[in-house]
Amino acid sequence: MTGQAPAADPDRRLAALARYRALVEDWDAFCAAAHRPLPVCIWANPARADAETVAALLAEDGVPATPVGWVDGALRLPTGTRVGHHWTYRAGLCHTQEEAALITDPLLAARPGDRVLDLCAGPGNKTARIALALGNRGTVIANDIDPHRLAPVEAVVSRLGLVNVSATCVDGRRFPDDGRGFDRVLVDAPCSGEGTVRKSGQAVRTITSETRARIAARQVELLARAVALCRPGGRIVYATCTFAPEENELVVDTVLRRWPGVLRVVAAAPAGLATRPGVTAWTGRQLDPGLAGAVRLLPQLADTGGFFACALERADGAEAASAPPVARPPGPPVDAPLAAWSRHFGLPDNAFAGVVVIARGGRLRAVAADHEPPTEPAPVFSGLELARRGGAAPKLATAASLAFAQAARHQVVAVDSTGRDAFLTRGSQKVNAAWTGRPGAVLVRYREWLLGGGLVRDDRRLDSLFPRVWL
Ligand SMILES: C[S@@+](CC[C@H](N)C(=O)[O-])C[C@H]1O[C@@H](n2cnc3c(N)ncnc32)[C@H](O)[C@@H]1O
Asked: Is 310 an active-site residue?
């Protein structure tokens, strides 16, 4: 599972970062760390497994995993581990995300009941963390300007079994205001990406001042829109994966000046993680002193990529309880053969508790009962796919099998590790002679974990219905 690209010439690779020398007191350590490839980071999906279990399953396949001390449930794997190929990833027991990017969790501090907007969400890693912080209930809106960046968002929320996300596709600078205000808004802004040098292994691009100014102008507009969309007393987190103060502190400083007395920086660096404070002066410009409360992650401090994050609070109103949910279902509820599925697979009575079924196109989707998709912009998707509408009654989509049918007692085909790998690569296999179920829709289980849905033919061949898009 490991493989590493050859490193480019070390000196040339980092040449574009020399402009940050004055900001980094331990420059040699910074350069040495920036040259090293990045360890892989994953986190356990709490609905399926804890980190100890995931670590033990990876260890069985010779992959050592050590806890990331400052984030519960996160693990570090050796550089180059292709964890996306491992069965635990495909079955939604874990997800991969750069360790540095996890910093937005404690800064955003999203809580169950919050209504959260992730303004620049593709490919959805932070959306997934927010959705879990909300307990897989309530409302997360995952917006991205690029429809191609929303397909991976759907794949992530489906694989992890998240039912509280709606995706929208508009320019975040013009995301409409429904007048209610979000409790939390995340702006994980498009940026020059200089902090990803360890991941890419490529030379850091030199950014001209014109390009930098253009990127920063867009970042200011996105952050300003986020502030406008956040309710008084709510919180906004601005984040990038670059070292450039022009795209970080200067962006926040510009927006702070537009809302004097309304916005303030919240110092929220997590305990147990070595970080540096935000800068308060750059190329002669004095910035809001509160920006020292922003967080800079540098490669040499905690062996991560480079990252910047700043939490802002709208101080123009008391921290009030979240706006009460609007009393309307997430879509016109439709009849779904929940009882037929439950009978067919022997599911417990509460298998679909807390979700409602809506129809979108030819598909049925499961959405948290208290989820509030926006009316404007109309969502590209909400929740996860349950089944084809009007399709052969007991057939559940893989996302739905993993989310709702882990406790199935009937029509379950148990496979060994060879069958597991065949199933997860969409291969066909012969069903074990001891299996006593009927041909038709089945669920496939490896040890105690479901892998997804399949179809047993009359000749007892099992076809995998594992989604191609998850491979
Ligand atoms: C750094 S990435 C976000 C990563 C994501 N939050 C995650 O953790 O998986 C920035 C995203 O912003 C999107 N983007 C760029 N300009 C935008 C705009 N004007 N409005 C909304 N999204 C935008 C890009 O398509 C890209 O997907």
From this structure: no
